[in-house]
Every structure is written in structure tokens, then in C-alpha cells.
Amino acid sequence: MVYNKSSNNYYLEIVFLRKLFRLVLYPRRMPALIAKLTGFEDHKLERHREIMVRKRKMTKQEWISVNTDGPDCPLSKVYTKTDVLRLFEQFENVKTEVWHFNRLHWPLIGKILPDNLCRWLGRIWGWHRIVTGRKPVKGDSDTWLLGMSLFPHQREGDLRPVRTTLGVARGCCSAPS
């Protein structure tokens, strides 16, 4: 998954709101209370609390990782448009766009936001950065959706592009969430 650094999820939620409210999780009973008030999963909030109590000072990379795909995510990264274009410079006709505004992250207003507004927010401030391009191989005319995957056994600098067909991947990211 290629996450968009210029998204509401990154700047507003991960960098600002979650850092602002992280201290609220320190009291032992707060994860359960916050879960009841917001609808967030209490076991995830409790795990975030455990991690913060154990490691009070996290690096920027650690903070991003535990706040993207759950508290036990070993590594997650976010990319700007410029970052992605540089990573895929070996491909031809590279284009990038953003999708996906997750209304579940906004329990108080997410349910009342119209679908059209969520789609619009996803297109300008979405969390998923979709990258399309063409392999520069003679005779290969297929267009592929490019993604980045980093597995636990890989080192941080060992990023390998992965690909799936555009039609399959686009359908899951363009639907309102």
C-alpha cells in the first residue's frame, strides 16, 4: 500500500490529533471509555496505551508505523507525489492520484457526511496514493497499478515495486468508505 503524505489522515489525524490526544490514553481505564464514546476498537486503543506506557518517546517513523495499520505494524511509510515519482522513475507514463476518505475515522461527523462529499475529500486529501505507469519493456503494452510493499524480513531500503491490474485495484479505492 502506498500511503499519501499530503492526506487528512496523515497531517490531521496522525501528526496532529493523535499526538494531541495520546496523553488521554495513559490512565488505565481511558481506552475503554474512549471506545464507548467514539466507537473505536477498545483492544486497539488499549494496545496503543501499552506501547506508549512502555516507550514514552517514539521516533517519527515509529509513530507513523503504529498509527497507520494498527499499533503492532512493524513499518509503514507515507509518500508525497514527488517521492512516488522518484521511486517509480524507471517506469514510463507514471501518474499518481489519491483516493479514500475514511469516514470511520470521524465517528461524530462521518456518518452524516454525504457520499459525494466523501468522494470529493478522498480525491483531494485521500489516504491511498494510486500510482499507474508502464514497464519500459518492448512489446509490453499493459498498464499496471504500482504499489510498494515492505515485508518484515526486508530492510528499510529494500523496497520492491509490486503490481496488480489497474481494474481490480481501482474498484476498491474509488468506492466511498
Brief sketch in words of this structure:
The protein has helices at 8-21, 30-38, 42-54, 60-66, 81-87, 115-125, 166-174, and strands at residues 3-4, 78-79, 92-99, 128-134, 144-149, 160-165. The protein has 177 residues and is an alpha+beta fold.
Key features?
18% strand; two-stranded parallel sheet; 177 residues; alpha+beta; single chain; four-stranded antiparallel β-sheet
The helix/strand order is EHHHHEHEHEEEH
Can you tell me the number of structural domains?
2
**Strand portion:** 15-25%
Q: State the share of residues found in helices, binned by percent.
A: 25-40%
Low-pLDDT segments, ≥5 res? 148-177
Q: Total number of β-strand segments?
A: 6
Largest sheet: 4 strands, antiparallel
Number of helices: 7
Radius of gyration: 18 Å
Q: How does the helix and strand content classify structurally?
A: alpha+beta
Mean pLDDT: 79
Strand order of the largest sheet: 3-4-5-6
Q: Please tell me what the overall shape is.
A: globular
Q: What's the N-to-C terminus distance?
A: 17 Å
Structure description:
There is one protein chain. This protein is of the alpha+beta class and 177 residues long. It has 2 domains: 3-66; 78-174, no CATH class. It has 7 helices and 6 strands. The chain has helices spanning 8-21, 30-38, 42-54, 60-66, 81-87, 115-125, 166-174, and strands spanning 3-4, 78-79, 92-99, 128-134, 144-149, 160-165. The protein has a 4-stranded antiparallel sheet. The protein has a two-stranded parallel sheet with strand order 1-2. α2 (30-38) packs antiparallel against α3. The protein starts with a strand and ends with a helix. The relative contact order is 0.15.
